[in-house]
Amino acid sequence: MIDIKSYDLSELKALIVNIHQPEYKALQIFKWLQRGVSSFDEMTDISKNLREELKKIALIRSAKIKQRFTSSYDDTTKYLFELFDGECVESVLMKYEHGYSICISTQVGCNMGCKFCASGLFGKTRDLTASEMLSQITSAQNDRGIRISNVVMMGMGEPLDNFQSSARFLKLVSDENGLNIGLRHISLSTCGIVPGIRKLAELDMPITLSVSLHAPFDDIRSSLMPVNKKWSVNELLAACREYQAVTTRRISFEYALISGVNDTIDCAGQLAEITKGIMCHINLIPANPVAENSFSKPDSITINKFKDILVSLGLTVTVRRTLGADIDASCGQLRKRYREVSSSEAIHKG
Ligand code: SAH
Q1: Which of 131, 168, 211, 308 is close enough to 5 for a disulfide, judged by CB 3.0 to 4.6 Å?
Q2: Helical H runs in the chain?
Q3: Is 267 in the active site?
Q4: Which of 212, 319, 323 to mutate to test the pocket of ligand 1 (most atoms within 8 A of CB)?
Q5: What is the pLDDT of residues 143-171, one digit of tens each?
Q6: Would residue 202 show up in a list of annotated catalytic residues for this protein?
Q7: pTM of the full predicted structure?
Q8: pLDDT tens digits for range 8-19
Q9: pLDDT digits (tens, 9 = 90+) for 213-256
Q10: Cα(60)–Cα(13) distance, rounded to whole angstroms?
């Protein structure tokens, strides 16, 4: 079956012409799909005949709300979405002064194996299609009756390990006949897949590249992130420099502060050293505890000291607000809990 929501307008036109229908119908169908319908029957200005034709050859990959948690502290909502094959992914909707922002997943699970992250605990099940990335946005929008203006590809999965679909998603989500979310309002976060960063630079899109750095020394970074054994800190930073030379966009470095691991004065000094000459922003994230590991966040004195050193060395730094702290709103936590609950239910039932 054709994954029709992943088609761009020109591909859809070719498809429509191919089934002997007038080309102009493609735009109507494209708009319906990108607005988030989950069935062809919702396309009320499309003839029954054409809808039936489409049903025979195509499937709309939507994201069905399976669970929804809204934080009692703030307006953060975490969704667990079910995909057409029963797999689940998470998204987090956050409200900021300037509007709504959503953090979407790009894979079911993840193969990167970062030691502090809940998403990689079970490896990767499969890649998401562009349509499934889009559907996380449309489902949340339609659920809340809002317009989402910012997207971060920072949920479950590694977008550069699913390059083609991520690139297709970026093209579709910014289409003026679709969701029309400007590329400047989109961030893509990577654990540091160097060839992927180079390929992304070739697309020369004005998105924000966010790099999960987490440690400035190879030994510490390799112990936290297996990807560093393949591409070292040096190689990663070189790719970031090249990326910036092409796109002229500021890079954002994510740095999860983990008590006793990467929160030393030495680490702060080295972080400033290796990012010299890169126009960047450092985003410090107090590590979220995950039951399967023993990592914890440093106390606030240590966090502030780390930040102050970076600021004194001329860097732009923010400490990430922890939104939705009461709803397991960080990467992979909800799906993990859902798997636990459903498997313990299965055991009880069994
Ligand atoms: N694979 C991409 C995007 C998904 S992870 C990447 O690695 O960037 C999204 C962000 O959350 C990454 O910066 C990741 O390192 C961070 N993260 C994952 N688990 C975390 C935890 N327990 N505490 C703090 N940050 C975490």
Answers
A1: 131
A2: 9-18, 25-35, 48-57, 130-144, 163-173, 194-203, 218-224, 227-230, 233-247, 265-274, 300-312, 333-349
A3: no
A4: 212
A5: 999 999 999 999 999 999 999 999 999 99
A6: no
A7: 0.93
A8: 999 999 999 999
A9: 999 999 999 999 999 999 999 999 999 999 999 999 999 999 99
A10: 17
The answer to whether the beta carbons of residues 184 and 206 sit under 8 Å apart is yes
Q: Facing residues of 124 across strands?
A: 109
Q: Which of 84, 97, 75 is nearest to 129 (CA)?
A: 84
User: What residue spans define the domains of the chain?
Assistant: 2-59, 64-348
Averaged pLDDT, 199-220: 97
Ligand 1 contacts CB of residue 212 (under 6 A): yes
Residue position matching structure tokens 């309002």: 185
Say how many C-beta atoms besides its own lie within 10 A of residue 147's C-beta.
11
Write out pLDDT tens, residues 287-327. 988 777 789 999 999 999 999 999 999 999 999 866 555 55
What CATH fold (topology level) applies to the domain 2-59?
DNA polymerase; domain 1 (1.10.150)
Q: For 64-348, which CATH class?
A: alpha beta
